[in-house]
Design a protein that fits this description.
Number of strands: 21
CATH topology of the largest domain: Rossmann fold
CATH superfamily of the largest domain: Methylthiotransferase, N-terminal domain
Bound molecules: S-adenosyl-L-homocysteine, iron/sulfur cluster, FE3-S4 cluster
Strand content: 15-25%
Largest sheet: 6 strands, parallel
Radius of gyration: 23 Å
CATH class of the largest domain: Alpha Beta
Strand order of the largest sheet: 3-2-4-5-6-7
Number of domains: 4
Length: about 475
């Protein structure tokens, strides 16, 4: 820290130790308001936001875009030509961070020829002490560093950067209040993210998220329902409810009796056509939530992160469920929603995991009938308990296990698509297929990417019927049914 100048020392720096604390702080709901002095901050200027990481970050970027536009900024078509560039970052694995250092390398050259361009780093990376220290010490051309809890202060931080001409750093380690009514520029006009809660109290031993996102805070149901009602009124077809453990929804409000299942039931009544959510925690997926999967608007797809199929590994991961309990919930889900598709997240090569234990994850994947998975090789995160556990298996060996698991998972993708061959499915049309060829594409209720022949762009944002004629591992192909 020796190189830190006095100005920066006085600023708010992150502390992983403080971020871990879960004291009974009262979380209040307050309403966002831009102070008058910042109202014209961005008039005549442009912005660009790069977003990395999870859907939570995508939703946060939409809020930051809203805040920037509310003070006069307009979106730049070319990021390198914009007056302010923000990198909304992810810290969940080492390679997520490596990408950011790479992009920063490119921006450095641009800053040399365009010294007036402001460069800001925000999101989960600045919440880590190590990353923020590195940004301060080695990335002099970065103007703004702010954390996940500081995004609502964006106009103030930009103002300070313009005024001071030196680096502005503000990273609170504790989360603060819930802010409602912040402006938002949504990427899509038919699909929307809706945060139902923020933070995570689970502390899985490998995971940095509880440190970067703070304690679990649920939004009030009336605020969520007002947002969904507004989306319905504006013609949105699909919403995805966001939270690190959506099943913990409501536990921190009043007596905790209004839970995630109740929220889904109320959301269903708004008339929204499609509801998805991510992610549920298997331990908290209760019978009420399982029953709610049967609601008309709730889509028959559940992303249900298991992480491992071995009880000892699950225990040292602090996941708080067993293989048997997980498989029992999968069975209950399939009994209630026979058509359901289940996908998952898996970590390969957790510290101390043996090959036999890893094989339990492969057999569980077959037993659960996963139709897809995000698979990750374990990546140590400084400050988490797993980072100091003995980890004797070489990375080369872990890659071999990873490839072995991938074979099973890829087969699951294929089987999941093949079961729709010959069926008529509803597709929410997203746009033109990447391959061109006069095809459009979109997603089915089971979240299967589907391509079909049509050049009618007026279908984008609508739900159409498609008869499936071919099923590959990563997509299905079909014909539009008139
Ligand atoms: N809250 C979600 C997941 C958030 S992080 C949940 O609990 O399901 C998304 C995924 O990243 C996790 O499910 C896990 O599979 C993976 N992940 C998290 N930390 C990791 C680490 N240190 N190394 C490798 N993968 C990790
Ligand atoms: Fe991380 Fe576990 Fe929280 Fe998910 S539930 S964000 S994996 S600590
Ligand atoms: Fe990454 Fe932060 Fe999301 S670490 S996965 S952007 S909560």
């Amino acid at each position: 820290m020796s190189k830190l100048d006095d100005d920066i020392k006085k600023m708010f720096l992150p502390s992983l130790k403080d971020a871990r604390l879960r004291k009974n702080r009262n979380v209040e709901t307050i309403f966002y308001k831009v102070e008058d002095i910042y109202k014209n901050l961005g008039v005549g200027k442009t912005y660009y936001i790069y977003t990395y990481g999870c859907q939570g970050n995508e939703a946060d970027s939409e809020v930051m875009a809203g805040i920037l536009e509310s003070v006069g900024y307009t979106k730049a078509s070319d990021p390198l030509e914009s007056d302010i560039v923000l990198l909304n970052t992810c810290a969940v694995r080492e390679n997520a961070e490596q990408r950011i250092w790479g992009v920063l390398g490119q921006l450095k050259g641009r800053k040399r020829t365009h010294p007036d361009m402001l460069i800001g780093i925000c999101g989960c990376m600045p919440q880590e002490e190590r990353a923020t220290n590195k940004l301060i010490e080695s990335y002099g051309f970065v103007d703004l560093v702010f954390g996940t809890h500081n995004r609502f202060n964006l106009p103030k931080l930009i103002h300070q950067a313009y005024l001071s001409g030196s680096k502005v750093v503000e990273v609170f380690s504790n989360e603060g209040n819930i802010l409602e009514n912040a402006p938002m520029v949504r990427e899509s006009n038919f699909k929307a993210w809706v945060h139902i809660m923020y933070g995570c109290d689970e502390f899985c031993t490998y995971c940095i998220v509880p440190y970067t996102r703070g304690r679990e805070r649920s939004r009030r149901k009336e605020d969520i329902l007002a947002e969904v009602n507004d989306l319905v009124k504006r013609g949105y077809k699909e919403i995805t409810l966001l939270g690190q453990n959506v099943n913990a929804y409501g536990k921190d409000i009043d007596d905790g009796s209004y839970t995630f299942g109740d929220l889904l039931t109320d959301i269903d009544k708004t008339g929204i056509l499609r509801v998805r959510f991510t992610s549920p925690h298997p331990r908290d997926m209760d019978e009420k939530a399982i029953q709610a999967m049967k609601l008309k608007s709730v889509m028959p797809h559940l992303h249900f992160p298991v992480q491992s199929g071995n009880d000892r590994v699950l225990k040292i991961m602090n996941r708080k469920y067993t293989r048997e309990e997980y498989l029992y919930k999968v069975k209950r889900l399939k009994e209630e929603v026979p058509n359901i598709s289940i996908t998952t997240d898996i970590i390969v090569g957790f510290p101390g995991e043996t090959y036999e234990e890893f094989k339990d994850t492969v057999t569980l994947s077959v037993e659960a009938g996963f139709e897809g998975a995000f698979t990750f090789i374990y990546s140590p995160r400084e400050g988490t308990p797993a980072a100091s556990m003995p980890d004797p298996i070489s990375i080369e060996e872990k890659h071999k296990w990873f490839d072995e698991l991938k074979e099973t998972i890829d087969l699951g993708y294929l089987k999941g698509n093949q079961r729709f061959l010959g069926e008529i499915v509803e597709v929410l049309v997203e746009g033109e297929s990447k391959s061109g060829d006069g095809m459009l594409c979109g997603y089915t209720p089971n979240n299967k990417l589907t391509h079909f022949k049509s050049d009618d762009l007026s279908l984008v944002g609508n739900i159409v019927k498609v008869k499936i004629t071919d099923a590959k591992s990563w997509f299905m192909i079909g014909d539009l049914v008139e």
